[in-house]
Hints:
Blueprint: H1 7-14, H2 45-67, H3 81-90, E1 96-98, H4 104-109, H5 114-122, H6 154-169, E2 175-180, H7 187-199, E3 203-209, E4 212-213, E5 216-217, H8 230-234, E6 237-242, H9 246-261, E7 267-272, H10 293-298, H11 302-312, H12 318-340, H13 360-376
Parallel strand pairs: 1-2, 2-3, 3-7, 6-7
Antiparallel strand pairs: 4-5
Helix pairs in contact: 2-3, 2-11, 2-12, 3-9, 5-12, 6-7
The structure holds thiamine diphosphate.
Thiamine diphosphate binds at residues 102, 150-152, 179-183, 210, 212-214, 279.
Amino acid sequence: MVAGSHPKDIWATATRADGMTSARVRPATVERGARAPAGVPDARRVEAYRWMVLARLVDERCLTLQRQGRIGFYVPLEGQEAAQIGCALALEAADWIFPAYRELGLALVRGVPLETLFDQFIGNSGDVLKGRQMPNHYGYRDRNFVVASSPVGTQITQAVGAGLAARRRGDAIATIAFFGDGTTSSNDFHAGLNFAGVFRAPTIFFCQNNQWAISLPRAQQTHSATLAEKARAYGFEGVVVDGMAIDEVYRAVRQARERAVAGDGPTLIEAQVYRFGPHSTSDDPKRYRPAGELEKWKQHDPVAGFRDELIREGRLTVQDDEKLWEAARAEVASAWKTAESKPPVDPLSFLDDVFAQPTRELEDDRRRLAALLAQREGKP
Ligand SMILES: Cc1ncc(C[n+]2csc(CCOP(=O)(O)OP(=O)(O)O)c2C)c(N)n1
């Protein structure tokens, strides 16, 4: 649905919000023109489901690992699997991803091995970021996946800049920025979308409206009827999609990508989802969520919904499904076991990569740190 094309419908729903919970705008049929792409292609439907299952199991495992003190921090995506996997499959490998901190589904589809992700969560010797980032703030240059942004919104302006740079180089790619409903109130959201509108950047703004910005509900975030309609003020298209329905997401992203690469400018996509888990492992949603809200949204569980669809389509049987979960569980367990068995990152390595040729001061620091570490370990 083009934002604002059915203002009456939108307002009817928006004013039903009870102040604390935001009503779900009945989404969205994305405009279907002659060249409108279909949903997730037949050949990739079971694969898409497998990624969703894997993401859910990583979430489950990581929440437990954090409670056990084996990793320091984790940001779950449960409830947002269809939005992320549908989006990831609609992109091309050359497109650059500028994530927030919740985009594990994108990293998986981009081909980042689970073990590599776990290495980063631990900060061990296998971590490509050498233990220098906060856990869960991963990035992979070889996958065109920029390091996660913790300050909300900074990735938006970066994605626009990278998009314009790509166009100047003649690369036919899109860049995509991920953020949540809360981030639409940030300065960077305004600066990024305005700039993108003025310069027709080949950038997709993918907002996962999961209804909460930590403890602040969507209804208190903005008086705009939808987040997507904000795009109109910047002179480009905004669409609302049901983020629990993978085909809707796929279609909208595919269309936005085509528009970006054709030089027709940016698109803002608002995928309406719900965060089933806590904001992060530092959060307890029981303190602010109204009773019954989670249960209501769980009736639209994107993983269960897509499984039922695949069974109806005859692509999956109940037995296949059980096997798929079992295999995915084994994959997660095995990747974790290997990652956990690796030695920690070498503390001296944090002085590497400062200058191409280390300065005398750096060498002195290295010697002093090595001596301190040896002392701590009781070596002479
Ligand atoms: C500039 C800045 N302000 C505040 C914070 C603290 N903070 C971390 S996450 C978050 C909420 C973001 O909510 P939203 O954009 O809806 O994304 P979600 O976490 O729900 O995916 C806030 C306020 C921050 N990280 N950066």
